[in-house]
Amino acid sequence: MSQPGAAPGQGRADAAVDWARVRSDFPLLRREVNGKPLVYFDSANTGQKPAAVIEAVDGFYRRHNANVSRAVHTLGGEATELYEDARRKLARFINVRPDELVLCSGTTFAINLVAYSWALPRLKAGDAILLTRMEHHANIVPWQLVAQRTGARIEVVELLPDGSLDLDMLRVKMTAGVKLLAIAHVSNVLGTVNPVREICHEARKRGIVTVVDGSQALPHRPVDVAAIGCDFYAFTGHKMCGPTGTGALWARREHLEAMPPFIGGGEMIREVRFDGTVFNDAPRKFEAGTPNIAGFAGLGAAVDYLEALGMDNVETREQELLAHLDEELAKVEGLRVYGTAPGKAAVVSFLVEGAHAHDLATLLDIEGVAIRSGQHCAHPLLQWFGIGATCRASLAFYNTHEEIEAFVAALRKVRGLLG
Ligand SMILES: Cc1ncc(COP(=O)(O)O)c(C=O)c1O
């Protein structure tokens, strides 16, 4: 494994991290796009991968490829070990027990698992599901499907003008009928970091089950799920330096035991007879079929990588980059940022007067700059702002101050072309 440019440890932020060396761990960041050095500012969409992760996936297929939990041969044992090792590493990374972690394809699957297996059998007409205005579609649509089938209703907590959650409204809306609160830890559009620990504590006092969408938190800050005190925590591997098609759902043991399987098939059973099937214990009973074994070998390596870097270091680095980006963008005339909550993550959604978001993003691509434009899988949030699309620049620790300057220079140039 190539070593990131930092001493191992999850400890305090370490000013001595060699960020240039860290960046050199990411082969893709060396490429050019349209003859220009790539500036990749789309990490909220998917993160880039260090060589260690790419090598772990490659190494799995070159040396260990076999199915998990089925074969007694050596390769089968190695593949199973790599898969289970990823579970243990992820559990340690977020401070939970490995047997409470269901490995799956990502946040979307994880939230659907809670929706179909926990909520669908329990909710009924008159119950409410509480969401926030800033949720990603993956944390809206599954609940709408549950609501349609159970007669439960969806309630929405709105935002304050800076894009932070209206916590007073949240408290008022936590009424007796509310059975479940589903909330993003960090918004993928605004960068708002929700005080999930306090919120989950309040919800628990009122008997409300909490589902936290950690997709945009885990890649960017230390996360202690046990300390948050939620019931479910969902996340995705590809945003945290891991391969696509990987992720997990953490759930309290009592929920996992009470929940019926969501998808049936091999691996999730102990015995199958035509007169009845005995399911495996959780978390296996939720992991039917052949998983993305190579992907989890890669995700295990991603956790090693991030731990060696230190998530405090990652957070500090990204906050420094964000401060620089904010400063540079403030100098661009006619630019409006959507989401300015204090302590926000390094995600900046913006519009420039007189320019359509897609036009800006397309012209920036010609300059080698990759940002996202559109609705960011958050239609209700953009409806609240009364706009059709934004540009979104989202940073990661492997970005540089020089890239921020190149991005803002390119933005000025293309804005000039759009008149
Ligand atoms: C906040 C948030 N939730 C959920 C998702 C969905 O993740 P995935 O597509 O990996 O399942 C994303 C991805 O953009 C996200 O940003």
From TrEMBL:
Pfam families: Aminotran_5 (PF00266). Keywords: Pyridoxal phosphate, Transferase. The keyword Transferase applies. SUPFAM superfamilies: PLP-dependent transferases (SSF53383). It catalyses: (sulfur carrier)-H + L-cysteine = (sulfur carrier)-SH + L-alanine. Its EC number is 2.8.1.7. Residues 39-407 form the Aminotransferase class V domain. Its cofactor is pyridoxal 5'-phosphate. It is an enzyme of class 2 (transferase). It comes from the Bacteria. PROSITE patterns: AA_TRANSFER_CLASS_5. One of its GO terms (molecular function) is cysteine desulfurase activity. Belongs to the class-V pyridoxal-phosphate-dependent aminotransferase family. Csd subfamily. Catalyzes the removal of elemental sulfur and selenium atoms from L-cysteine, L-cystine, L-selenocysteine, and L-selenocystine to produce L-alanine. This is Cysteine desulfurase. It comes from Luteimonas soli.
